[in-house]
Amino acid sequence: MNARTAINEKMNLDQFPPQFRLDVMTQNDVPDVGRVERLCFPNPWPASAYRRELQNPSQNYYVVLRLRPSTALMNGSSTRESDVDHGDPKRPLPRRSLLPLQLGKRHPDPDVTHGQLVGFAGMWMAFDEAHVTTIGVDPAFRGHGLGELLFLSMVDEAMARGALWLTLEVRVSNLQAQALYRKYGFTVHGTRKRYYSDNGEDALIMWSRALTDADVRAEIENRRDELARRLGSQIEFNRVSPFAISVSRLNAPSAPLEQS
Ligand SMILES: CC(C)(COP(=O)(O)OP(=O)(O)OC[C@H]1O[C@@H](n2cnc3c(N)ncnc32)[C@H](O)[C@@H]1OP(=O)(O)O)[C@@H](O)C(=O)NCCC(=O)NCCS
User: Fold this and answer.
1) Is residue 232 in some structural domain?
2) Is 181 labeled as catalytic in the residue annotation?
3) Catalytic: 169?
4) Which atom of ligand 1 lies closest to the CA of 135?
5) What is the residue-averaged pLDDT of the chain?
6) Residue 250: inside a domain, yes or no?
7) 21 - beta bridge partners?
8) How many domains would you assign to the chain?
9) Which of 40, 66, 178, 214 could form a disulfide with 115 if both were Cys (CB 3.0 to 4.6 A apart)?
10) By residue range, what is the domain housing residue 163?
11) Beta carbons within 8 Å of 57's beta carbon, 6+ residues apart
12) Do 69 and 113 touch, CB atoms closer than 8 A?
């Protein structure tokens, strides 16, 4: 049984298509972030590093992506749309993004009802630059646009905070992540020799183009529209509605990586 089949069986996806939600990371998320980090990186950060980062929200920004539980389904007490948690109550979501409620059904898996964490991302702000420090998606959920959603949330926040550029380091061998950054117009501006302590690998230093440039903004908006269509979700500037990915798409194999 492969990992994806196991997860689908565990979650009983035919009955309960997975629904996702993006939120700002809190201290309560740190243990779950650590679990997914260990699936993503050979050199995960210690929990204390996240805890320290989260104490300084004016200078950094961290988000988590979770399978979204429906509290209405969890406690079985209500299934009215008005009782479902839509995030900011001042901005009700459009009807097409509402969760597909299933009357009277409770989810059988506590991981899902408590919102299993499937991805995370974060960045630092320094003057007019934003520096993406981490991004990762649970391997069982890769290849469906979730990493791009997390990355777009970094781009959005950088623009919202007035950053002129976004930068990051990425392993020379990490072609998947590089492809994601190139998709958003990032280019390589240098290397840091033996940057990664686990294997002495070099890092590429990648930079965005000017985030204030009208053409760059237009391209980001095109990407946002494409991603919204792919996820079947509303992705407004700095705001993502909860969204669901259909079972058939989660079952489909990811595209193979083309080596150049
Ligand atoms: C990098 C990572 C976050 C991408 O997450 P993901 O959910 O699989 O990515 P998405 O499905 O959103 O793909 C977005 C883009 O990334 C690139 N990409 C993702 N997987 C790819 C693959 N297997 N081959 C080539 N490009 C790939 C593509 O540009 C893709 O856009 P496309 O679907 O239009 O081709 C994920 O692979 C990961 O967690 N890796 C381990 C942690 C890591 O390396 N983080 C980066 C540190 S710098």
Assistant:
1) yes
2) yes
3) yes
4) 45
5) 76
6) no
7) 66
8) 1
9) 66
10) 3-92+109-241
11) none
12) yes
- Contact partners, residue 97, CB within 8 Å, separation at least 6: 233, 234, 241, 242, 243
Residue nearest to atom 40 of ligand 1 (CA): 136
Sheet holding 19-24, edge to edge: 187-192, 203-207, 165-171, 129-137, 117-126, 60-67, 19-24, 243-244
Ligand 1, atom 7: closest residue by C-alpha: 147
Cβ atoms within 10 A of the Cβ of 128, count?
13
Output the CA 174–ligand 1 centroid distance in Å: 9
Alpha-carbon distance 166 to 127, whole Å? 11
pTM strictly above 0.85: no
Q: Is 142 in the pocket of ligand 1 (CB under 6 A)?
A: yes
Residue nearest atom 27 of ligand 1, based on CA coordinates: 176
> Model confidence over 49-88: pLDDT tens digits?
999 999 999 999 999 999 876 532 333 333 222 233 333 3
**149 close to 187: Cβ distance less than 8 angstroms:** no
Distance (Å) from CA 212 to ligand 1 centroid: 25
- Measured from the CA of 132, which atom of ligand 1 is nearest? 48
Residue 238, pLDDT score: 66
CATH code, 119: 3.40.630.30
Is the pLDDT reported for residue 10 higher than 50?
Answer: no
User: By the 8 A CB rule, do 216 and 208 touch?
Assistant: yes
Domain assignment of residue 99, yes or no: no
